[in-house]
């Protein structure tokens, strides 16, 4: 019998559930997603929803939304945190560990190999031509993903649904505009909007009688490296700080990396940093895997490993430690309202991020055409998979830049 269909019985929150999948099946899924999942955090969390919630029904809509809210509240890369949480839901720490490793490992190997090529040949000019097409196709993919997430998390685009959920649509719009203007996701605003929706829809008893205030547990990471002083120690400290204190997706962490890697440490020059970002965008998996490429340029494979661990380990800790408490309190009506407000704000911020990414990727008429054709192809060609679109867009982009533009 195929292990995808194996049944394992788990005890979740004192309720007996039957899981229609095994830990091995979930690990294989995230290994595949890490190998072929292009498009950055917005697209990746969209793939998880489509595959695990809609199609396979391994994860419930409620569990997915809880994971998305927790991932946005905690520091670190959004898609990796959501993947870790979804692994934790039915299989605890082992599930979180294996899904996290499976998700990150393929793209880490790819950026190390590309780093070797970069060092050998002194640059990646062909990647800019490839990314011209890939970046445009990615906008089409993540734009469609955002639409699906919006109608699932906020409401359908119908007058009656919008009217009944107008507060969530207001939060959605506010976060979309703020993210598009500031080019970062403001975590404090997520919390404020979540609390506001909780007070409006389901005020907790403590608020009604002015009793003990709600407490929020903030976890702090500690250093864990025991290497010799030098660049490896500097890499460890810098990237652990990036993983522990920068909120949001890869889009949010890139300005932080630029300030440290180029301006403060002078490990890379401007062009090398831009090439590092390009490498992350044309490889599958989380965009923040660019840290592996940067680490490799600074100090070889050891530098790549240290940089990746520095970013992803705090992400793992900040996701797994609060997860059991977050799941228990999420059954409370007030907390549910808080999560609803957070989720609408998160999706709005993701839409704003698409605008920011699109403004950098859609630079002329041909790139806009590639993006639109990509979205239409995904809508009307049901069996078409994203990796094939990315490959075709890479070829088209390369030919356009090298021979026509």
UniProtKB/TrEMBL annotation:
Keyword line: Cell membrane, Membrane, Transmembrane, Transmembrane helix
Compartments where located: Cell membrane
Membrane topology, as annotated: Multi-pass membrane protein
Source species, domain of life: Bacteria
InterPro entries listed in its UniProt record: Chr_Tranpt_l_chain, CHR_Transporter, Chromate_transpt
Membrane-crossing segments per the record: 29-48, 91-118, 130-150, 162-181, 187-204, 233-257, 277-298, 304-325, 337-357, 363-381
Protein name (Swiss-Prot/TrEMBL): Chromate transporter
Organism: Dyadobacter fermentans
Taxonomic lineage: Bacteria, Pseudomonadati, Bacteroidota, Cytophagia, Cytophagales
């Amino acid at each position: 019998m195929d292990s995808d269909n194996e049944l394992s019985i788990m005890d979740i929150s004192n309720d007996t559930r039957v899981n229609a999948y095994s830990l091995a099946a979930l690990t294989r899924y995230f290994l595949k997603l890490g190998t072929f999942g292009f498009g950055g955090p917005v697209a990746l969390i969209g793939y998880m929803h489509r595959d695990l919630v809609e199609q396979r029904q391994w994860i419930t809509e409620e569990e997915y939304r809880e994971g998305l809210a927790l991932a946005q509240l905690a520091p670190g890369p959004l898609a990796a945190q959501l993947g870790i949480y979804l692994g934790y839901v039915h299989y605890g720490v082992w599930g979180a560990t294996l899904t996290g490793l499976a998700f990150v490992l393929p793209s880490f190997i790819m950026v190390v190999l590309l780093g070797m090529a970069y060092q050998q040949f002194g640059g990646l000019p062909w990647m800019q031509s490839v990314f011209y097409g890939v970046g445009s196709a990615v906008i089409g993919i993540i734009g469609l993903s955002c639409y699906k997430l919006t109608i699932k998390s906020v409401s359908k685009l119908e007058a009656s649904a919008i009217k009944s959920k107008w507060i969530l649509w207001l939060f959605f719009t506010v976060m979309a505009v703020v993210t598009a203007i500031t080019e970062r996701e403001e975590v404090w605003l997520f919390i404020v909007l979540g609390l506001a929706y909780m007070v409006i829809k389901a005020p907790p008893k403590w608020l009604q009688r002015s009793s003990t205030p709600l407490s929020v547990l903030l976890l702090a990471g500690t250093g864990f490296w025991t290497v010799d002083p030098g660049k490896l120690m500097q890499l460890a400290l810098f990237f652990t700080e990036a993983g522990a204190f920068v909120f949001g997706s890869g889009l949010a962490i890139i300005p932080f990396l630029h300030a440290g890697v180029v301006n403060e440490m002078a490990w890379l020059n401007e062009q090398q940093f831009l090439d590092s970002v390009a490498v992350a965008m044309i490889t599958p998996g989380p965009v923040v895997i660019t840290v592996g490429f940067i680490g490799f340029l600074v100090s070889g494979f050891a530098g790549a490993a240290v940089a990746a661990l520095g970013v992803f380990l705090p992400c793992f800790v900040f996701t797994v430690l609060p997860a059991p408490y977050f799941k228990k309190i999420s059954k409370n009506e007030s907390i549910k309202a808080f999560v609803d407000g957070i989720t609408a704000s998160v999706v709005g911020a993701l839409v704003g991020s698409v605008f920011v990414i699109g403004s950098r990727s859609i630079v002329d008429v041909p790139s806009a055409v590639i993006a639109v054709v990509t979205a239409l192809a995904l809508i009307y060609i049901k069996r078409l998979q994203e990796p094939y679109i990315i490959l075709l867009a890479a070829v088209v982009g390369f030919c356009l830049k090298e021979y026509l533009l």
